[in-house]
Design a protein that fits this description.
Strand content: 15-25%
Order of helices and strands: EHEHEHEHEH
Radius of gyration: 13 Å
Structural class: alpha/beta
Mean pLDDT: 92
Number of strands: 5
CATH architecture: 3-Layer(aba) Sandwich
CATH class: Alpha Beta
């Protein structure tokens, strides 16, 4: 069975390393991006099964990235978990209008993120049957 591919888009390298280790320990293939522009390019090139996306990043914030991904047929349905320290109603509303699967506020428990990842990917598995 093919490993599920997850892109972590966040400019906090320590956090990216932590999440990457957790996900790899669970058997996922992990890709990383440190800016909005890099995240968009990686999604177009690699077609991950899921994107974990920070809100505040250089070269395009999370809402910008989501908007770009939702306007292209090939990336329209890729699930996105928004992970951010900016938990305002406005940002949360924008993320859900752009079909975010979940919105997690920093700081967060890695176990909570892993649970959300498993829920999203389980939903993908049942859709493809």
């Amino acid at each position: 069975m093919k490993k599920r591919k997850i892109l972590i888009a966040d400019d906090d390298q320590d956090l990216v390393r932590l999440i990457s280790l957790e996900l790899r320990d669970c058997g996922y293939e992990v890709l990383t991006a440190g800016s909005g522009e890099d995240a968009i390019n990686k999604v177009y090139d690699e077609h991950p099964d899921l994107v974990i996306l920070d809100y505040e990043m250089p070269k395009g914030d999370g809402i910008y990235v989501m908007t770009k991904l939702r306007t292209v047929l090939e990336t329209f349905t890729i699930p996105i978990i928004m992970l951010t320290a900016y938990d305002s109603k406005d940002i949360r509303g924008q993320a859900f209008r752009l079909s975010a699967s979940y919105f997690l506020s920093k700081p967060f428990k890695p176990s909570d993120l892993l649970q959300k990842v498993k829920e999203v990917l389980k939903g993908l598995s049942s859709e493809s049957r």
